[in-house]
Amino acid sequence: MQQKLNRSTVIIYSSARKNGNTSAHVNSFAEQNDVRVVCLDDYKIPPYCYNKNYKNDDFYQLFESLLNYDHWVFASPVYWYNTTIQMKAFIDRITDYMDDEHLKPRLRLLRSKDFSLLSNASSIEAPEVFVQMFKQTFNYLGMSFVSHQHKNTQSAV
Predict the structure, then answer these.
(1) What's the 3-state SS for the chain?
(2) What is the pTM of this model?
């Protein structure tokens, strides 16, 4: 993902440290490309709930705005072989679009979109289970995988 992007791109990231390694990775990528950066930690996104009773929820408005971009870049540190709680909540909430017949056509817009992954951890490579969670989830939704870039945070310190 070092080359200049030629399509509308948004970076969607989350991290326990807003100015930590993930933010540095995101900022480095954003400096090379004209992209919008969205920090999920700035939004109220409650966990998925079957009754859809969300109060003061930002998910729907955020998701609808993301549909304007052709390429979604997910960025997260690796926490115990997984992503952050806020990223997981965002991903789980996509189920709201699958459960609602009126929202399904909006969800199908993902079929024309690409996605990539930025990760970081104190390992040379991201665990395969971490990468596969993103690949399998977003391939299931019809998105095409472009690339993955991992940073070893031990060398960043």
Answers:
(1) CCCCCCCCEEEEECCCCCCCHHHHHHHHHHHHCCEEEEEHHHCCCCCCCCCCCCCCCCHHHHHHHHCCCCEEEEEEECECCECCHHHHHHHHHCHHHHHCCCCHHHHHHHHHCEEEEEEEECCCCCCHHHHHHHHHHHHHCCCEEEEEEEEEHHHHC
(2) 0.92
